[in-house]
Amino acid sequence: MQAWTDLGGGVLVRQSRAYQMNSVVLLDPAHAVLVDPGVLPSEIEDIADRVRGAGPAATTLIMTHAHWDHVLGRYRWPAARVIAHDRFAADLERTMKLIHQEADQVASEHGESWKQRFEPFRANERVSGQHFTKVGPWRMVFRDAFGHSPSQLSIHLPEQRVLIAADMLSDIEIPLLNVPAPTYLATLEALAPLFSGGAVETLIPGHGTVAHGAAARERIDRDLRYLEMLEREVSAARHAGVPLAETHQRLAGMPDVERHPDHSMREAHKRNITLTYGGTETAHAEP
User: Fold this and answer.
1) What is the DSSP string of 63-105?
2) Residues 60-114: pLDDT tens digits?
3) What whole-number distance in Å separates Cα of residue 209 and Cα of residue 207?
4) What is the CATH number of the domain that holds 154?
């Protein structure tokens, strides 16, 4: 696995050894933008070294959502301005116990440790809905991206035709729901015209490989198919009075659930069924 991928024009992606999570670095001498810098301490330092080498006059952090693996790098840039969803602070506070547990575990699994304890923080700029902004030379469009996290944003760089998709559109994970499927479906349906109309040529998922052109368009079509089938089949079972346990059995073999041999999605798919059925099983809060 190659840690760094240079997409040109100052857009770089660094993939972590932990869950193949992608951090995005937008480098320019005037202004660097770091999206979800992480995950391991050594990897955060590697990102800091790359940014330091470019010598930007200013640095901004963007957090796509408040899940533990996406927020751990905040400590390394304490003076940087932070942009996140207006629900971010509340979402972060709600999951602090999980953040500490997962951060300690993942570092230990990779033979590393944290020099300091993760502390909650608030964004300097809070956005929601569809929000157009410019950070240094970088023009970007933020959009609510609900379905996986209540604080999730996607980030579109229209001039580069890049979509930073947060925890969506992965080639190794199915959509991971925190609410029933229709919410996630609506998020992807709103993004689909960007792909079909050519506004997005390069897709950077939160986890997995970067996709270009037709492969990027297939990625969103694939997740739409999964969610549409999940919603259709679960709704039919529920309206027919089929119990949840039997619905799990019926849909366990649904197509395109297992996408990567090292990342089993069986339990994730089961939770998706429960949430879409109307159950109360705990939503996804990790990769």
Assistant:
1) -S---HHHHGGGGG-TTSEEEEETTHHHHHHHTHHHHHHHHHH
2) 999 999 999 999 999 999 999 999 999 999 999 999 999 999 999 999 999 999 9
3) 7
4) 3.60.15.10
**How far is it, in rounded angstroms, from Cα 153 to Cα 168?**
10
Q: Say how many C-beta atoms besides its own lie within 10 A of residue 76's C-beta.
A: 17
Average pLDDT over residues 166-175: 98
In a domain? residue 282: no
- Asked whether the beta carbons of 260 and 268 are under 8 A apart, the reply is no
Looking at the domain assignment, is residue 145 inside a domain?
yes
How much is the pTM? 0.95
Long-range pairs for 76-81 at CB < 8 Å and ≥24 separation?
76/37, 76/44, 76/45, 76/47, 76/48, 77/34, 77/37, 77/48, 80/34, 81/124, 81/125
Q: Which residues contact 116 (CB under 8 A, 6 or more apart)?
A: 75
**Quick check: 13 and 5 in contact, CB under 8 A?**
yes
Q: Is 139 helix (H, G, I), strand (E, B) or coil?
A: strand
b/e string for 208-239 if b means 16 or more Cβ within 10 A? bbbbeeeebbebbebbbebbeebbebbbebee
